[in-house]
Amino acid sequence: SINLAFNRIKKFHSKQKQLQFKFKDKYKNELSYKYTPIEKVGVYVPGGTASYPSTVLMNCIPAIVAGVKNIYLTTPSLGSKINPAVIYAAKKCGVKQIYKTGGAQSIAALAYGTKTFQKVDKIVGPGNTFVASAKKEVFGDVGIDMVAGPSEVTIVADKYANPNWIAADLIAQAEHVIFAQSILISNNKDLIKSVNKCLKNQLFYLPKRKIATKSLKKFGLAIHANNKKKIIDIINIISPEHLELNIKNNDEILKKVRNAGSIFIGKFSPEAMGDYIAGPNHVLPTSGAAKFSSGLSVNDFLKRHSLIKISKTGI
Description:
Helix content is 38%, strand content 20%. It is an alpha/beta fold. It is globular, with a radius of gyration of 22 Å.
């Protein structure tokens, strides 16, 4: 499974490589852009309530494609053990070292170096509130990808949608953490009622029932919007990390969506596909940050240099 995901994610990110360009103006001045990879990158992989090999792949693969030679990974170990899937994914990505620690202290160690930790130039990867706050704190001394979390999904659905599938996709986000945000927007009140029934039925059998139930109660929401303009306005105000369009005429709405991290189109495109094996990155802007930023990409691991060569006539 990890090999399959690795190949798909790498294929998608390989198409993102920036083209260097050069041009001469009428005075024979030579102007160009050149790209070089960041030298050392630190990847934080959560390991508390959840441990994701997918996080390793999504954060390391764009760095590999960019040409980063030194990737270091830190993840909390429960007892002395680390999830073997995380270790395998790290090996697959050519990670130089794995540090068995988590929390804000790991971010500090990556940012400034210790006897054990290599000092890095940029830190990427998700974490809890402490990790996110620590990344904010060290930004400027090192680069960071973004201050991400908690996870969120907004699903737009009409009367033709399958309420069981919609409920499953809302729960898939709600079970991450109790602060996850799951929102349904629909022009059909009957669908909203059906989804609520399906949520109750599915939560009853869910292993992570406690987390998902708390999340849905506190941050779950169903919005009835009776026309397309309202639906589009609501999407752009929320600026969701993940947006699912599960309606008959997706194209009309899709054209006018300005703010969203990743957009899943049609009833066979659940957000979970994007989390693991679709190919595009799952590290995405949250809490409205999609208004001004994008998901993790190869560009995040490259530096642009502008080259300026002025001719005798030019000066």
